[in-house]
Structures are given as C-alpha cells and as structure tokens.
Prior knowledge:
By secondary structure, the chain is α+β, with helices and mostly antiparallel strands.
Amino acid sequence: MTKPFRFEELLARIRLRLRTAARAPEVTVLRSGDLGLDLRTRRARSGDRTVDLTAREFVLLELFLRHPGQVLSREQILSHVWGYDFDPGSNIVDVYVRALRKKLGAQRLETVRGHGVPAAVTDPSGGT
C-alpha cells in the first residue's frame, strides 16, 4: 500500500489475506482404505494396482467416495451421474456398479437391500 492510506482499507486487506491463508488445501485424492481416486489424473488405485475407469465409472466412484457411509437413492445417482433427463426405469446404475465391482473387487461396494443401490465404497479390511 502506498502512503497515505486509510486504516479501514488496511484492515480490509489484512482480513482478505487471513481468509485466503486459512482456506483448507484443495482435495485432489479421495480415499477409502487402500482405494484412492486421483481427481487430477482421473485414475483409481487399488492397493498397488492402477485401475482405468471410463468417464461415467469415474463420476460414479467419485460420488460414492464423497458420500461415505450414506445410502444414495437410484434417483440421486441417476441425476448426479447421468442428468435429470435420464429414464429412472433404466438399469444403467446396476450395469455401472457391476463394472466397478469387477474392476475394484466385489467387496468394495455394499448394496443395501430394499434400496437396490450401493451404499458406500467400503474398506475390505472392515473400515469405511
């Protein structure tokens, strides 16, 4: 700042600096146990192995990792991954969940009976 300056302007600039410095760092890798999803490279890692995902599989897995332990309805999944105009009677969610199970291991995606959709990506060792 150049002199002369108003004290209110100095305080406003200090508050702005403090706010930007206090922000949490941006999350670039979502994790559940030994499963990691890198949001920059759009790759999944399961243990030491890299798993290639299609664009829809990536968005679906990201949705599950961002909502750990939550039961997501079929409508929530369809609207987030495929958009609101997608047919709710379609079995597309089942098809993509099956593909993720095949790539990541069947034990990773837990299905809650009565809802028919995966509830969460789980850690095979017992944690979520």
